[in-house]
């Protein structure tokens, strides 16, 4: 019994339950006429799933998100690993990403629209700018934090530079790289929705703005709720991949 | 170095040395002189200890022999050939174990073989044999964080044994082990030297340990780092470990090394 109540999964569901209960209470008071109850939101969510509006919106939203995150992950990990391995790489690239991480995205969006129009490219760029810096900087610090004595061990047992990188540095950096990927993916979700709200209303962003303009707050909240749920599931999936394939030693720790 | 000691060193170089350190100097960045003109022989098939206070350059010497860091001057010969980098003839046991936390005991032990391109089934067979030899049967699939410090140390030892190198370089292998286990390990160590016919170079802080396990003890002193004395404890190892520890020769040797070191400590 003790184990069940303190297990991580139980605590997670329990905290969800508390948040939903507070939401329901807040909606019933009501805090604001624009704040629907949890149950009304769930009903709206169900309707939107059934009438096809979700099915139509998600591919539109996920397309720039997935393209952007895939590019950010590939280029970002490659760049970050290189920066971690080479002082020259760090000197060359780190200012770019530090600036990009600090830059207020909303201010850049008009520039992106000017350069790439209002289509898919601009949205992919927004996702990229959001997701890439944190992926790069994490990959770099993951590589840097590799225990030096493990690297010495690899060299002492006749590993080539390539062996040391692939068999020691990358596995050792993988938790930090994955932490970067998770942060990058969440940032990518923010970027995808932001670009739909600020560039052209499509997909989930459209569901949010359209229902807001119709004052159908239950549907608006349902759209917001759905994107958060998708993001949480995607993040969990990433964690599962990491533990399953890269760090079997962490299985028990989760 | 006195004339007398130089003569002793020259004399010993006539015997078969698996590792010969010839006038090695190491100056780290920032002009830190870790070793100065060190000359020392490590006889084949024997266990030689490097004993000395913290910071006298023991790890530095071991890493130079391993080919992990270059010497600033002088040279190291292993089986008569000058060391240019790590080689098949040497294996290292790290003071901090250097185990990969994401790999099982089995993979950690076989990692040296993996890096040499030995096929998986073959290296697992070899690894299993050495896991058994160091008394870790049943822990093949465990991860390092599931083992005690002493067990981790034995994984590092098994990994070094598995590559079947002539020379084993061991940097304070028992430092993470409590006193009871330490004695047990020292006894295992003697059995290992007996059975493996390898050359062991063993770094330790403990005078008793050095005298107990070694055929030869090199006492190092810092600033400038030098070999202050080379002692060959002639202790009868055929008797029981406890009898050995009460042997007057053993106690005398411990006392003699302590005298050599005390001048430095004071
Ligand atoms: N990478 C390095 N850069 C600069 N100085 C170093 C470096 N490594 C060691 N030293 C210095 O060289 C000297 C010898 O260091 P070393 O690690 O070989 O000592 P040690 O005898 O192994 O000491 P301990 O018994 O504490 O392990 C020390 O003064 C140390 O500060
Ligand atoms: Mg040391």
Nutshell version of this structure?
Chain A: It comes from Paracoccus albicereus. The complex is a heterodimer of chains A (254) and B (266). Chain A contains eleven helices and no strands.
Descriptive account of the structure:
Chain A: This is ABC transporter permease. The complex is a heterodimer of chains A (about 250) and B (about 270). Chain A has about 250 residues and is an all-alpha fold. Chain A has a single domain (about 55-255), classed as MetI-like fold, CATH 1.10.3720.10. Chain A is about 85% helix and about 0% strand. In chain A, helix 8 crosses helix 9 and helix 9 runs parallel beside helix 10 (about 205-215). The radius of gyration of chain A is 22 Å and the shape is globular. Chain B has a domain at about 30-90 and about 200-265: P-loop containing nucleotide triphosphate hydrolases (Rossmann fold), CATH 3.40.50. In chain B, the strands form two sheets. Chain B has a six-stranded mixed sheet with strand order 6-7-8-3-9-10, with helices on both faces. In chain B, strand 1 and strand 2 form a beta hairpin. Chains A and B meet through helix 8 and helix 9 of A and strand 6 and helix 4 of B. Bound molecules: adenosine-5'-triphosphate and magnesium ion (MG).
């Amino acid at each position: 019994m003790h184990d069940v109540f303190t297990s991580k999964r139980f605590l997670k569901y329990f905290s969800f339950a508390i948040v939903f209960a507070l939401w329901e209470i807040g909606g019933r008071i009501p805090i604001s006429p624009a704040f629907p109850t949890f149950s009304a939101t769930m009903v709206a969510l169900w309707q939107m799933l059934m009438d096809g509006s979700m099915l139509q919106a998600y591919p539109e939203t996920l397309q720039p998100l997935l393209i952007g995150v895939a590019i950010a992950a590939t280029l970002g990990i490659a760049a970050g690993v290189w920066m971690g391995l080479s002082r020259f790489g760090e000197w060359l690239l780190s200012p770019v990403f530090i600036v990009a991480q600090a830059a207020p995205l909303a201010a850049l969006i008009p520039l992106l629209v000017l350069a790439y129009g209002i289509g898919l490219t601009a949205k992919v760029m927004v996702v990229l700018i959001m997701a890439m810096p944190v992926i790069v900087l994490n990959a770099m610090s993951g590589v840097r934090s590799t225990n030096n004595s493990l690297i010495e061990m690899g060299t002492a047992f006749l590993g080539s530079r390539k062996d040391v990188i692939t068999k020691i540095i990358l596995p050792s950096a993988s938790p930090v790289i994955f932490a970067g990927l998770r942060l990058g993916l969440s940032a990518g979700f923010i970027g995808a929705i932001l670009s739909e709200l600020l560039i052209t209303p499509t997909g989930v962003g459209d569901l949010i703005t359209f229902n807001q303009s119709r004052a159908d707050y239950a549907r608006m909240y349902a759209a917001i709720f759905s994107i958060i749920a998708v993001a949480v599931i995607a993040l969990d999936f990433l964690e599962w991949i990491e533990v399953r394939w890269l760090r079997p030693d962490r299985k028990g720790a989760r | 170095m006195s004339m007398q000691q130089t003569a002793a060193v020259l004399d010993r170089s006539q015997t078969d040395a698996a590792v010969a350190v010839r006038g090695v100097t190491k100056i780290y960045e920032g002009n830190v002189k870790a070793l100065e003109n060190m000359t020392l022989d490590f006889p084949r098939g024997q266990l030689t200890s490097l004993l000395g206070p913290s910071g006298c350059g023991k790890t530095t010497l071991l890493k130079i022999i391993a080919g992990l860091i270059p010497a600033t001057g002088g040279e190291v010969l292993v089986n008569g050939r000058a060391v240019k980098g790590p080689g098949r003839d040497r294996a290292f046991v790290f003071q901090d174990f250097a185990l990969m936390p994401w790999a099982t005991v089995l993979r950690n032990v076989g990692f040296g073989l993996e890096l040499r391109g030995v096929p998986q089934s073959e290296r697992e067979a070899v690894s299993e044999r050495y896991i058994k030899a160091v008394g870790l049967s049943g822990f093949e699939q465990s991860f390092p964080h599931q083992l005690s410090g002493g067990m981790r140390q034995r994984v590092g030892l098994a990994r070094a044994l598995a590559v079947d190198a002539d020379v084993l370089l061991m940097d304070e292998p028992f430092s993470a082990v409590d006193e009871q286990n330490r004695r047990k390990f020292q006894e295992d160590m003697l059995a290992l030297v007996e059975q493996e016919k390898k050359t062991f170079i063993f770094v330790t802080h403990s005078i008793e340990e050095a005298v107990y396990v070694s055929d030869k003890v090199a006492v190092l002193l810092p600033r400038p780092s030098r070999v202050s004395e080379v002692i060959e404890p002639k202790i009868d190892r055929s008797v029981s470990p406890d009898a050995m520890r009460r042997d007057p020769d053993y106690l005398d040797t411990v006392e003699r090394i302590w005298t050599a070191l005390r001048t430095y400590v004071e």
